């Protein structure tokens, strides 16, 4: 039976703020007062620390959460390699050593739905750079899920923080720290190590599809606002963290109990699995600043030029994952929301450019102002990759249209939202991304730029004509 919107939302409660210190207890009195690890924590719970940074990381970067749970996370049988899904995940044969490095522009038709897959088996690595073992780099995925993860299944990644960008289908994400409802036009971040289960929230059999970015190093922060001032772009109060919620399904010790809960771990780009006899979702209370969160992209406060020229897309940065080099990100998550363009004597779409950063783009809905939609175009559920120094920009028709446009104030992108994972790293493309998925558009470059016209005239005075 379809779950109504109201019922859906009732299940979820949030606390608001970015990079905040939160505390939450599902049972009053579950959090110890004034200390973290009393001899006997309240209500017979175990205290467990979840560290997202080194113990000694500087205070302003330090991330950790104290969990108060029925049984500690360590009480499970050993993990063993999980055979099948590694291949579907594109994680078989050491993907990070077998990448394809391609200077050409790449574009993908919408990725297929997969009625058989759940979130984990439907996750496909498309591109990436670095090495999770060295905690360096990032990876770009698409996912397609036709069914919920099993009620007793949980997943975590030891490799990095995962940013999820649903494109179709709302996700009911149960995490150790509580529940998040993440719909298309919302995003969420699940930190390294946090166990979670993804269910299809619609409950009507409609499938889910989307994109994901895994960050092997550092973490997502809000970009500096500089002269923009103290508000704008994504505002801290619009980020939402879950409240504690738990199940009690367990026996007297970690070794008895009626159910087997299957926990899948992503560890150095391979999957491992164990079956334990108690639920991993047994956290009754928590406090800390290391937690999953979500954000509604509709709340993004877009700014732009009100005079002339097209500014850099960095003004559209929602979240940034900085490298050690100031202003240079391992990955930025950038959106292109509906906005007004008012620039005078300005070519309004993106300029032609080559970038030392790599640009992986996706489309959540609608169209993108610099690219045609339709068959063989840039369409929702598809993607493009303009790698380091790959020339790109508006396709020929978009160029002609914008060159000849009557420059009235114009709203672009109504009802649409494109996004970009922009990385300072050169990304490789997996075999799955280049071949297996069969979505690469062979004619992308020709289709877009084959018809770019020569406007050049040697005669002075004809330049702007
Ligand atoms: O390539 C793209 O479409 C993304 C992009 C948009 C923009 O407005 C400026 C630069 C840029 O790379
Ligand atoms: Fe670009």
Automatic annotation (TrEMBL):
Pathway: Amino-acid degradation; L-phenylalanine degradation; acetoacetate and fumarate from L-phenylalanine: step 4/6. Keywords: Dioxygenase, Iron, Metal-binding, Oxidoreductase, Phenylalanine catabolism, Tyrosine catabolism. Its EC number is 1.13.11.5. InterPro entries: HgmA_C, HgmA_N, Homogentis_dOase, RmlC-like_jellyroll, RmlC_Cupin_sf. Fe cation binds at residues 353, 359, 392. The keyword Iron applies. Pfam families: HgmA_C, HgmA_N. GO terms for cellular component: cytoplasm. Transmembrane segments: none annotated. GO terms for biological process: L-phenylalanine catabolic process; L-tyrosine catabolic process. The active site is at 310 (proton acceptor). Residues 13-297 form the Homogentisate 1,2-dioxygenase N-terminal domain. Homogentisate binds at residues 368, 392. One of its GO terms (molecular function) is homogentisate 1,2-dioxygenase activity. Residues 299-455 form the Homogentisate 1,2-dioxygenase C-terminal domain. The keyword Nuclease does not apply. Its cofactor is Fe cation. NCBIfam families: hmgA (TIGR01015). Belongs to the homogentisate dioxygenase family. This is homogentisate 1,2-dioxygenase. It comes from Chaetomium fimeti. The lineage of its organism: Eukaryota, Fungi, Dikarya, Ascomycota, Pezizomycotina.
């Amino acid at each position: 039976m379809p779950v109504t919107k109201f019922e859906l939302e009732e299940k979820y409660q949030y606390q608001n703020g970015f990079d905040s210190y939160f505390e939450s207890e599902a049972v009053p009195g579950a959090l110890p007062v004034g200390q973290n690890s009393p001899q006997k924590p309240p209500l017979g719970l175990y205290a467990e620390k979840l560290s997202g940074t080194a113990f000694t990381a500087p205070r302003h970067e330090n991330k950790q959460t104290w969990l108060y749970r029925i049984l500690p996370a360590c009480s499970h049988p050993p993990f063993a390699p999980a055979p099948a899904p590694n291949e579907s995940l594109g994680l078989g044969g050491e993907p990070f050593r077998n990448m394809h490095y391609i200077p050409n522009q790449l574009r993908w038709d919408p990725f297929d739905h997969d009625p058989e897959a759940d979130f984990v088996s439907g996750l496909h690595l498309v591109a990436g750079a670095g090495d999770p073992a060295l905690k360096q780099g990032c990876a770009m995925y698409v996912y397609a899920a036709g069914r919920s993860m099993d009620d007793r299944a949980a997943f975590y990644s030891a490799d990095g923080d995962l940013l999820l960008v649903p494109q179709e289908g709302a996700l009911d994400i149960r995490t150790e720290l509580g529940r998040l409802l993440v719909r298309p036009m919302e995003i969420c971040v699940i930190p390294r190590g946090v166990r979670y289960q993804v269910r299809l929230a619609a409950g009507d059999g409609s499938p889910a599809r989307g994109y994901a970015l895994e960050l092997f190093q550092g973490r997502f922060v809000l970009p500096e606002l500089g002269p923009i001032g103290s508000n704008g772009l994504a505002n801290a109060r619009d980020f939402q963290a879950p409240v504690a919620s738990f199940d009690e399904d367990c026996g007297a010790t970690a070794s008895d109990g009626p159910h087997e809960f299957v926990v899948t771990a992503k560890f150095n780009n391979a999957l491992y699995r164990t079956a334990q006899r108690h639920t991993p979702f047994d956290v009754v209370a928590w406090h800390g600043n290391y937690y999953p969160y979500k954000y509604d992209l509709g709340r993004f406060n877009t700014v732009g030029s009100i005079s002339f020229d097209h500014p850099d897309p960095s003004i559209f940065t929602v979240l940034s994952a900085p490298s050690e080099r100031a202003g240079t990100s391992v990955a930025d998550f950038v959106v292109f929301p509906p906005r007004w363009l008012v620039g005078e004597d300005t070519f309004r779409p993106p300029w032609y450019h080559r970038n030392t950063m790599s640009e992986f783009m996706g489309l959540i809905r609608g169209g993108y102002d610099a690219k045609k939609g339709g068959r063989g175009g840039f369409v929702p559920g598809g993607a493009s990759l303009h790698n380091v120094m790959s020339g790109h920009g508006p396709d020929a028709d978009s160029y002609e249209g914008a060159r000849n446009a009557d420059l009235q104030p114009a709203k672009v992108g109504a009802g649409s939202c494109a996004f970009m994972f922009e990385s300072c790293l050169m990304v490789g493309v997996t075999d799955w991304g280049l071949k297996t998925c069969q979505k690469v558009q062979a004619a992308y470059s020709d289709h877009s730029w084959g018809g770019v016209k020569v406007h050049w005239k040697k005669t002075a005075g004809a330049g702007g004509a």
